[in-house]
Amino acid sequence: MKFNALTPPAFQIFMHSFDMAEPDYGRAAQRASENKLRLANLNFDIGSMTHAGQYDPQDDAYEFWVDELARLHYATVTTAMVTTY
Question: Which is nearest to 59 in space by CA: 3, 69, 20, 67?
Answer without folding.
Answer: 67
